[in-house]
């Protein structure tokens, strides 16, 4: 009970919320690391996944190579990047992007690849161009699987972005590292709770987006199977 009260007290102190080392600043840093890494990962993985699904040549090899990066320790990638690039925020981003590409790439490839070939042929016979077929047929049908990869990468990024603090940068991981250094248990628990809360909120937002998009596409779906 005393520990619960101590954690509550830590959250209730205004000094812990404001300033360079405050909760709001660290939260903003954490969201920045996650958002930038996710955007870069999507920019790489989504087009590559679609390309591999449509041409299939070397698909398994490419996906296997990216999955090797997922098996590498994130902190090790950060340290290696620091040695090669220098002490820059980009070193953390490289590590986070490396581990977030595989779930997005794999799910995009599988989702597009599983779209019924007869539907694609029907779309071509209707005069659909490649871009139209992707946005009006393939993406709506594969969306849930692709988005599942996105959600997996997002939650994983939120948890793993704490490595930025190990490398001397910011983010919510600072509360864990600094708390361990000072033997400040309420701060450690507070940092862990915020990381968990951010992951839960992100999952909820993603769930709402997925529900909205699925309903939208179902309402205006193309009935190719009837043609």
UniProtKB/TrEMBL annotation:
Classification via SUPFAM superfamilies: MetI-like
Membrane topology designation: Multi-pass membrane protein
Domain ABC transmembrane type-1: 27-206
Subcellular localization, as worded in the UniProt entry: Cell membrane
Pfam (any one): BPD_transp_1
Keyword Heme: no
Residues spanning the membrane: 31-53, 65-87, 93-112, 156-177, 189-214
UniProt keywords, alphabetically: Membrane, Transmembrane, Transmembrane helix, Transport
GO CC, alphabetical: plasma membrane
Keyword Transmembrane: yes
Source organism superkingdom: Bacteria
BP GO annotations: glycine betaine transport; transmembrane transport
Family classification: Belongs to the binding-protein-dependent transport system permease family.
Protein name: ABC transporter permease
Organism of origin: Pseudomonas marginalis (Pseudomonas panacis)
């Amino acid at each position: 009970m005393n520990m619960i009260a101590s954690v509550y007290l830590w959250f209730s102190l205004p000094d812990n919320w404001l300033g360079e080392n405050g909760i709001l600043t660290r939260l903003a840093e954490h969201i920045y690391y996650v958002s930038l890494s996710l955007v870069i990962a999507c920019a790489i993985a989504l087009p590559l996944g679609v390309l591999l699904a449509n041409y299939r040549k070397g698909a398994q090899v490419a996906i296997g190579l990216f999955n090797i990066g997922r098996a590498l320790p994130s902190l090790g990638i950060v340290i290696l990047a620091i040695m090669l690039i220098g002490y820059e925020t980009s070193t953390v981003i490289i590590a986070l992007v490396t581990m977030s590409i595989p779930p997005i790439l794999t799910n995009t490839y599988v989702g597009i690849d599983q779209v019924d070939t007869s539907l694609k042929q029907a779309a071509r016979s209707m005069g659909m161009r490649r871009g139209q077929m992707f946005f009006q047929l393939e993406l709506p049908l594969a969306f849930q699987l692709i988005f599942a990869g996105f959600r997996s990468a997002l939650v994983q990024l939120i948890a793993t972005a704490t490595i930025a603090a190990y490398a001397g940068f910011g983010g919510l991981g600072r509360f864990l590292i600094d708390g361990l250094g000072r033997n400040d248990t309420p701060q450690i628990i507070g940092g862990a709770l915020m990381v968990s809360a951010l992951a839960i909120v992100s999952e909820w937002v993603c769930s709402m987006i997925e529900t909205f998009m699925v309903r939208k596409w179902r309402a205006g779906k193309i009935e190719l199977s009837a043609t």
